[in-house]
Design goal:
By secondary structure, this protein is mainly alpha-helical. It is built from six helices and four strands.
Length: 139
Amino acid sequence: MPTRTCSFNFKTECPMDNPPRFTDCAKCCEYVRWKENNSMANDLEQKPQKDIISHPSHYIDGRKYEPKDVIRDWDLNFNLGSAVKYISRAGRKNDILQDLKKAKQFIEFEIEALEKERASKEITYYTEDGKVFLTKKGE
């Protein structure tokens, strides 16, 4: 990129593009000072790195589908979705045994929740003529 001498004496060579972004050298140098001192501006101009937040490698490398998409498509609740997540990354992020134990724990959480839900439900049995024959909790 061609450079030109800075008439405002900010630098020996003006860092701005050719043609310059600003026609007034003072505004140009003010922008360069702001840019050098503002880390956010510097971060925005850096090339994007691999997206470790939205698409971590332990979920996507070598995979056709991400766990989050499978969980959403299958309409899984938190416990079952977490189990799928830990199974899908087993041995890819942490120790395989640790991930499988986490998956097992979330499956156990779901089993406990379902058992409590079943135990609290009332079941009513009726006779052929529509009278209540028996009401009991659980199955």
